[in-house]
Amino acid sequence: MKRLLATLAVLAFPAAGTAATLTCDPARIEPESYRLTTRAQALNLLEPRYSWWDGFNLGKHADDLGDLNHVATRLAERAAELDPGNLMAWSILARQYVVVDEPERAEEAWARALGAGGAVVWSSTLYDVDARTFHFLAFDRAHLRVYTMETLNRAPVERQFYGLPKFPPASNERFYAAMAGCLDESLRPEAVVPWTEVREIKAGNWVLWFKLDRPITVRSDRTGKAKKLDQIKVNLHGRTGELEVYKPVGSDTLGMRGRGPAAYNDLVRRTLVKFVDPDKRMKLPKLSPGVGW
């Protein structure tokens, strides 16, 4: 994968076309551009990066996640260069530019993807439903949608240690197309929340809280159990935190505590509301990260 990146030339994006020129149809997308937004993204995600010994190297997971995000972003950039009409490329870039802290480029990608009727999709953990499986949140102009991984996979999910899900092989192009924002109508969401029913988005160290006017019900594809929620507490995958060394009061021994990527969560919500809440109806409480969520 890194050898592939070394061969990609850095080119300027073409001027934005009309929304009608953007498509998810594989037959209308330049083949290499389509591959870069499906199979190549899958291979990057599935590339082995950890071993048992890495548990003793506290910084390696953050470095490897940074590498994964860099490659994912670069692949999508190249896909957009090859075919500016590939809606999946812009949807991936909308997510990835937020993850890698490029807010201005993120806004351009969000405008293209959502303006064409697409969605920006994040893999996530809904702690109030099941911390040992993944859900997928799709953001479009009108709605927030919640999907199980099983739904996008169109089959039961293979699981690994602690019941955590495994991503499907790269040959499952329909799954990775859905992750890239191309969610066809056959995929039934667990919940659909109009933005008019989201009254507040709060950002914390590790999660976002979407506070709702009406409760929703979301199922776990691991246990089959459903939970009724009046807010969606979600960790959007993409960034991790860091360990902080500190001296506890009254102790001569140094301690360590984790700090989450609060600035990342704040950037997600600030970018999102520019497109889904132009009237500034939603409340955005001031970011005040502390210890905990």
Description:
- By secondary structure, this protein is an alpha+beta fold.
- It has 9 helices and 9 strands.
- The protein has helices at 2-6, 31-37, 39-46, 60-82, 87-99, 103-115, 149-153, 173-179, 262-276, and strands at 120-126, 135-139, 143-148, 191-194, 198-203, 208-219, 226-236, 242-246, 255-259.
- A 7-stranded antiparallel sheet has the order 4-3-2-1-7-6-5. Strands 8-9 form a two-stranded antiparallel sheet.
- A hairpin with a 3-residue loop joins strand 2 and strand 3.
- Helix 5 (87-99) runs antiparallel to helix 6 (103-115).
- The longest helix has 23 residues, at 60-82.
- The radius of gyration is 19 Å and the shape is globular.
Could you give the order of the helices and strands?
Answer: HHHHHHEEEHHEEEEEEH
Count, helices: 9
General shape: globular
Strand adjacency order, main sheet: 4-3-2-1-7-6-5
User: Which consecutive residue ranges, at least 5 long each, have pLDDT under 50?
Assistant: 1-12, 16-20, 52-57
Radius of gyration: 19 Å
* Average of per-residue pLDDT values: 88
Question: In terms of structural class, how would the helical and strand content be classed?
Answer: alpha+beta
Tell me the strand percentage band: 15-25%
Largest sheet: 7 strands, antiparallel
**Oligomerization category of the chains in this entry:** single chain
- Strand segment count: 9
C-alpha end-to-end distance: 35 Å
Question: Level of helix content?
Answer: 25-40%
